[in-house]
Specification:
Elements (H helix, E strand, L loop, with lengths): L1 E5 L3 H10 L5 E6 L4 E3 L11 H7 L2 E4 L6 H10 L6 H8 L1 H10 L7 E4 L5 H8 L3 E5 L9 E4 L5 H8 L9 E5 L5 E9 L5 E3 L3 E6 L2 E7 L6 H17 L4 E10 L2 E8 L9 H4 L4 H10 L11 E8 L14 E5 L9 E9 L2 H11 L11 H11 L2
Helix pairs in contact: 1-10, 4-5, 11-12
Length: 381
Amino acid sequence: MKVLVFGAGQLAQMMYLAAAPLGVEVYAVDVVAREVINPVDKSKFDMSIEYAVSDVHVITAEFEHVPEDLLDMAEKSGKLHPNMAAILTGADRVREKYVLDTNNIQNCPHLIVSDVSDLDAAVQALGEKIIFKASRDGYDGYGQWRLINSEELPKLKHAFASLDLKRVPLVAEKMLSFDREISIIGARDAKGNVCCFDIAENLHHEGQLHVSVAPATAVSAAVQKQAEQIFETLANALNYIGVLAVELFQSGDELLVNEIAPRVHNSGHWTQKGADTCQFEQHIRAVLGFPLGDTASKGVTAMINIIGCTSFSRDLISIPGCHLHWYGKEVREKRKMGHINVVADSYRELGEKLLLLLQYLPEEYFVLLRGEAQRLIAIEA
């Protein structure tokens, strides 16, 4: 069987590696060059996108910002999973907010800003502390602006005046205090079966995910159930097929959806070594109609992103339960170059392994790792 992935980055690469043992071939589309390539070695195939669409069994995507003409071609083939509407929802915060609100799913209080003149009303409705997010093309902290007090509003008005807010509106969200950021990742198949992984706890620095720990610490049964209900409501509302990620803010036992990602997700990379079936295999299973796999966690796992850095020792894989996943990219500031998964039997053991891991890493690139290691050790002290 054959799967075509729109996008040719590390997520397509990891789908390829997870699909191969199932006897599934994965092709990728470089959507900029408009070429069909091997997602691992990046070699070009002598075939057009149109031919690939006709030849494969299923078409999917590794990111939301696929040109709409390609999505439309795939949708018309009847092979696109998840569907075009779901992918576009993940690509556009205005669409996303509409889906959340119409399905009564709690999220941050917000207003849509399509003109600079809307800013005063947004401050009046939401208060002085607001985060403004571009409705499209924003990720890893890009396309975001913060208002801390009303004195900064004239400066923001000046900045927004140069933007085409009619074409790309802003979502103004009230800044809320919350205990932590978590995510739930799961899959839904064509029959409506849903299967979720354990909640992951996510630590961000400068708008980028640096560390995920799963299962998240101190998750009550009520919070796990609430997260799964949110996931299932969204997946059913979108008539979703494949793996879906839902990022959440937790405050006490209350969960608010931050955003969704209609694809395999960075905060699910821990599943490669920390779950019975990883998110990449699960996505292939779901879109091809194979039985969904067991999502049970195996011990506790930390995923550590390698960001803008190549100067580390690969001897880190000498640590038991430590696995390196390298993407083969050219180094660039704030670019995700790879990740490390560390699996242990307990949070304390995981924390101890993370401290050991720091012996092989330049700590200035892994600024949250020591503190997280110490927190995990203290849990079971």
